[in-house]
Each structure stands twice: as C-alpha cells, then as structure tokens.
Amino acid sequence: MLPSKALEQRLQTAVLAVLPEADVTTVLVRPCQDTKFGDYQTSALMALAKARKMNPRQLATDVLAKLDVSDLCAKTDIAGAGFLNFFLKPEVLQDTLLGAVQGKHLFFAKAEQPKTVVIDFSSPNVAKPMHVGHIRSTILGDSLARAFRLLGHNVITDNHIGDWGTQFGMLLLGWKTMLDKAALETDPIAELERIYKQLSADCKADESKLEAAKQELVKLQAGDEENLGIWREMIALSQNQFDTIYGRLGVKFDHVLGESFYNPRLKSVVEELKTKGIAKESDGAICVFSDGSVPQKEDPFLIQRDGEWNANPCLIQKSDGAANYATTDLATLEYRLETWSPDKIIYVTDGRQQLHFRQVFSVFRRWRPEVKVQVEHVWFGAILGDDGKPFKTRSGDTVKLSDLLDEAEERSFKTVNEKSADLDEVTRKEIARVVGIGSVKYQDLMPNRQSDYVFSWDKMLALNGNTAPYLLYAYTRIRSIFRKAAEQGVVVAPGATIHLKAADELALAKQLLNFGFVLEGLVDECRPNYMCNYLYDLAGLYARFFENCPVLKAEEPERSSRLLLCEVTAKVLKQGLEVLGIETTEKM
RNA sequence: GCACUUGUAGCUCAACUGGAUAGAGCGUCUGACUACGGAUCAGAAGGUUCCAGGUUCAACUCCUGGCAGGUGCACCA
After folding, report:
1. Would you say the pTM of this structure is higher than 0.80?
2. What is the ipTM of this complex?
3. Which domain, by its residues, includes A280?
4. Which of A374, A450, A379 is nearest to A118 (CA)?
C-alpha cells in the first residue's frame, strides 16, 4: 500500500478511537505544500475540533497518542493551529520508488469501489465540418475517460452526434436539386455545407423553398425510403470525416448513438411526463413548469422580469408536435439507465447549456425520483481570438478542426527542422505530429476549463513555460540518457536500490509520490488542468535534478540509483501525458 | 431585468475538502556555458488577489452588497 494511503487509514482509525462518532471521510492526508513542514499533513483535525468546541492542538495530541506510524514516519509533529505533519522515513520513500520501478504500482491506487461512468462528449453534427467549437468537448471528454479508466472505473464513452433535426429538410432539398456529384466525391462535407448554406439563404428569400424543405423533412420523419436513403448516406459521409479527425486525435468511442437513435422513445417520454402530471400543454406546446420545490432563485423553471417571477418552462414538445432537445436528452437518459445502469453520467459541453441541463436534470429527478444515478454537467468556456472574440479565421469563418491540426503539425515541423535537421524526414514528420497535436490538446486542457482562453500558436508551441513541447522535451532528455547509457554499455546494477541524498533528488522523488493525489483530484472535479500543473512542476523538478545531479558520470551505486529515478520519472511523465491524451516521442 | 460565470504581477494563466510566506511563463534586468540534449538552468524586480462589509484560529477560496467583462433566458440544438 502507498504510504500516504496507509497513513490516512491509520489516522482515521486513531481519530475514531478519540472521537467514536466522528465522520472520518473528511479526515484526509495531503502532501505538504511546503516540504519544510513535512511530507504529508492533515488539516482535518482543526475542523473536527472546531465543530466540538475543542482545543485543536489538544485534539491533535490525543489523536497522535493513538497513532502508531513508527514504521512509516521518522517524525510526526503538531504545528500551527493544529496541523498534523508527517515526515516519511527515507527507506519508505525509497522502497515506494523501487516498487514503481518494479511495476508494482505507479503512485496511485485503483478505486476501491469502481463505478460505471457514462461520458457524453464531442457530439458533432452530421453534414457539417468539425470545427474549433468541438475541440474542448472532445479533448476534455477524452481526457476524463482516460483518467477514470486508469483509476479502474468502468467507463462508457458515447458520442451523441447531431444526426436529426430541421436542418435535414434543407439538406435533402439541396441534395435533390443542386448537388454537385463531383464535388461530393472529392470533399463530401464541403459540398454538404455548400448546399446547406445555399438553401438556407434561398429559404430566407423564398417562402416556397422553405415550404419545400419542410415537406422533405416531413417525408423523412414519415419514413420515406428515398429520403431515408439520402439521410443515411449523409451520415456515412460524415462518419468518415469524424473517424479521420478522431484518428488524428487518438480519440475512441465505445458507442456512437446519434439523436435519431432515440426517436422511437420520444413519444412515450412525453406521454409519461404528461400522465405523471409533470408536463402540461401551454400555447400548443408541452412544457414542464416549476413545482415550487426549491427556492425561486434556484428554480430553473422560473425567471424574474421586472420584479416578478415568471415561468421559464422546459419544452418537451413543440406546438407542431415535434420533440426537441430536452426530450431527446431525457430519452437518452432513460436508454442509458436501462442499458448500462451507470452510477454517474457526465455531459461535456460548453457553458451556454447550463440552464438547459439544470432543467433536464430537474425534470429527470421528478420523472424518476427513485433512480440514484449522479448526473453532472461538466462545462467549459470559449476559445477566443487575439481580439477577445470567439476564435475565427481572418475572413470570419469558423476554423475547421482539420485545418487547425494541419497547421499545428506544419508549424511544429518547421521547428523540428530547425532544431533537429540531422534526423531523417520520416522521423521529423512523426515528431512534428506528436508535438503539434499534443500542443493543441495541452493548450486546451491547461487552463481551468471554466475560463475562456485565447488561442495562440506562439504560446502553445513555445519551448518554455507550461506547454506540451516543454514536457515532451523533458521526456526526451530522460530517454536520451538511456540511449547514451546503452552506447556506453552502462546498465543498472543488478539488485540496485534507490538512495536519495541530494535535495534535488528528494524533491523530485516526493513529487513522483504525489501522482495519485492529482489523478484523484482530476477525477473528483473533472479538471485535467490539475494534471497539467502537476506535470509541469514535475518537469521543472526533473530539470533541476538533471542540472545538478550527474547520472552517467556518477560513481556506483549512485549511478544506478539515479538511473532508476530517471526511469520512474519517465514513467510518470508518460503516464500523465497519456491521461491527457498526449503521445510521447523519444527524440525531438 | 434575472440567472450562471469570470475579475490574482505590465501581459497570459495557476493556487489541491477554508490551511502555513499567493506561484509559473512571457516581457524587463543579471548570471551559468565546448553542455549526461542550451528546445537548459539559476537569480532580481514586479501584488491592497476588482471594491466595501461579514463569518473564522485561518479567506484568492465561504456569506452579503456594489463595480466591470462574458454567456444564457418558450417552440434551434
């Protein structure tokens, strides 16, 4: 067991011995912010003391009296207002590192109670190019899936693609009247986009076109064979595009169930909500109104206008009888519950949909009060251009994801050519791919997901600072040592152990032990930026070690000890980057 | 108007259940150097954490009230 976990368990037992009625789930052991205080600390005793009007230092003393950690710690002390600090024995630290070398663990423990987690992300639209708007959902969702999986949870990723809706009326009419077959052959998505834009403009100018488009939609919805065939072909063409992009990004889905998949369920969802008295008719539409169960301020079905609270209903059926977004989401929820019995469902979308999800979740709770599933909207902010407005091309169009990835690789290739002209072209291209794609991902994951960020090629590809190239470089420097070692015939001595003496060695080692805390934090709050910050710190600590502690030039047994430390650092860096969906490269 | 959200160094961003002296990069200034990969490292300067109250042993973090930006608010998803 990891020393921090063992400490935590024993601490909780000791607290129970002193305060039998205490809730010890909040009694957690964390790494010390500043290692001068110790290696691990708990600040939970102060909170417990406060709730009981006890003297916090006295409580800490009492708990310490019941706590035997002499096999793990060289020292414990009570500091400040009632912090309990733990100083790990050097041999415990060293054995833990050695355990990682031997592949027994990588500084984290799998979840004791694995959960089934459905993650809904990316959700591109059929017949439209994937653009920057899809990047955050795709990359964030993929990273969350990777982190949950690593901790042993049963993850189901589901791409809820937009394959149904009013836009197909125009697409179908366009397909029949203005399709350029040759253009469809060379670039299907561009051609679909063209006919959609053209018809959309035509419909605005010409009522009869709009009517014709509506008729096509009605035919599709009624199951017209010709229209269904065209619709299926549009989906297939789009799926090719999605597959190409996801392939480049290294993103995989367990399921791709578009909106249309839930069509057969929509009617019964509406009926059930009506029967249960949750939804009712209003202005021809079927809506869910407030049930007054929460304070007005927190009620997603109320809104204040001119000092008065007005209804802000959630529509589940339009006055024309068609279902809408909320209905599909409810049907989707129902399907997921039936099919996978998840403990948790995560929706990764942009922040503008907060109200929508609050409403959907609220309707769901009223509809299925007995279901325990945890539903969570993990939202994110916008990607902005230099001007502080949503990121667009110079001409004002949305930036296509494929173009963006191309440019990332091209720019990265330029740098590789400058810095590593000696490598052959295939290798240089491959490095450029890893660094380019990795940089786009890292820039996206590094900021707090809820804040908007400014897209910058220069920053994301910078060789210094909290960027993918910096981390990848740190990794290649480690790999380089091992290449050099092999050239010189240097190997780790059989049975070698790790002995940490230098301050930079110790600091690096302790950071390695914290990997698990970061993973758990990431999963708890769905914030991959925790991992970014951790890896950046790790790379910085490694750089200092690298500068001040010679490895190959050291005498045995120090050389083997340091080689092992390098090896574990590389493992953690690689694993951490993998959680972010970023590949590594041996050379740069 | 109401809700959500953001406001931290000149700029871009961090800050782990409320926790110990608020940290990085860029930019500015200074240093290390034929280097286990310099795509590096070390150091300096730079802060009333938007403002005003409150809770607490302890507040960037929680509460109340302002100010400023972003987003959303009935038949688009």
Report:
1. yes
2. 0.93
3. 116-161+260-380
4. A374
